[in-house]
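Entry: Bifunctional NAD(P)H-hydrate repair enzyme
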Amino acid sequence: MKLLTAAQTREADAFTIKEEDIESVDLMERVAKAFAGWFENKFQPTQPVYIFCGPGNNGGDGLAIARLLHQRQYKVQVYIIGDVSKASHDFKVNLEQLPKEIVQHPIQAEADIPVLPDGACVVDALFGTGLNRPVTGLYGKVIEQLNKSNNCITSVDMPSGLYTDSQTPEEGAIVQADFIVSFEFPKLAFLLPQHEQYIGQWHVVPINLSQKFISHVETTLHCTTQQDVKHLLKPRKRFSHKGLYGHALLLCGGYGKMGAAMLAAHACLRSGVGLLTIQAPPVGYSVLQTAVPEAMTLVDKNRKHLSELPQGIEKYDVIGTGPGLGTEKVTQTAIGQLLATSTQPLVIDADAINIIASSDRLKSQIPKHSVIFTPHPKEFERLVGKAQNDYDRLERMKEFCHKHACYITLKGNNTAIGTPDGNIYFNTTGNSGMATGGTGDVLTGIITAFVAQNYSLEEACRLGVYVHGLAGDLALNTVGEISMIASDVIDHLPKALLSLQQP
Ligand SMILES: NC(=O)C1=CN([C@@H]2O[C@H](COP(=O)(O)OP(=O)(O)OC[C@H]3O[C@@H](n4cnc5c(N)ncnc54)[C@H](O)[C@@H]3O)[C@@H](O)[C@H]2O)[C@H](O)CC1
Ligand SMILES: [K+]
């Protein structure tokens, strides 16, 4: 699914209005209906509803929502902030249509800001995608008061005060929304970790914007949905054999960290690889042979650490490396050889990232169009550099992926995947139970398996990250967030993959 900027959303509105020969206020009515439909499923009409409206179309939505909720027996009161005479045209149309039974409270000074009863149900319709400067003054005071109170806040389209697709200046007040109901597309701001305190649960409701516009509009930002992934996943051929699904090599594990190799190996096998070989130091030989009988094991000449590449390395279709490696000198040399000589795609994680990050020479040897890096935020910072904020981080990711013609999956709540052609795909699965040691090793194994099965590197990243998160979400039902460990994610991979194969 594409992610549109605020400007593109306005273009989509204008295109739809023209294509369908409707008025802009008709589109506002659609928005309000979509919101009210969601609201009815969430809140009972017994709860009084307080709707705060700003001067633009977000406020206009608020007024239309007030009318619709009133019709559906909710007890609604409306607070209107600022000078109504300067409000948008569609705001004014909806103000005229507001039923007389709905109490209107103008807020024109600080003294007018209400203290609502605890547990009130607030709808925030102050500002949406039209916000063009930080929120200060009276609007800022209203937002501060709403945030201070103990009420459940549902924001219309955007938490008011938050910029849709660029950094919000520090001086601006921002609503801390419990719920956000946005229209047609999620917004970039919802997906960035720095906005955690403003973004509760977000939901996207359709308003039938022009499909023609949506399919043609150009964007580098995308969100991977279940539908996208179902589309990507290829069925296995009936007359197939293991040779069709690739032979992967994992260069993982070291003294005291053989578990990382095991997790990556299990995940790789559960994700459909045809054959798997693991090369590990001798300390890991018997444990790997016992714990992962499906894999073949090669032994490094170094007792504790990766120090060499196996003979006949060309025969492997993909190499996954990093988990459990450590950063010994011998391992640095081996990773250098891997970059300089490999002919197949590489999935590079953990200490292998740290090794490359610490050497400009190694960075300059990253083979083009064949590497996927899977860093967590700290590893990312070492590899790509320190960013000022999440927007800056995405820009740096784009630059790095372009310069080295590589892929990066930046792990986090909405893992962001960068591609050499400048696209960014945000993931929509996963949960905070997965913030535990070993889940990254699992991801390395999964992505390696998808590359082995001949998915493109971009597809392997998107599928791998989605399936990994989905397995974590399924694990939530059985073990919960607190108890979840990396093995639980592996245990739920079969269910995750099965569910994606359902029509
Ligand atoms: N396709 C859709 O999703 C549709 C969404 N709709 C809703 O319309 C808003 C966007 O409306 P717009 O009028 O463009 O902008 P806002 O209401 O967000 O605000 C504009 C308004 O506010 C003034 N302003 C901006 N920043 C500030 C500030 N910091 N302090 C004070 N005043 C400010 C600005 O000058 C304007 O007067 C979208 O989010 C949806 O909710 C439509 O209903 C139709 C389709
Ligand atoms: K809002």
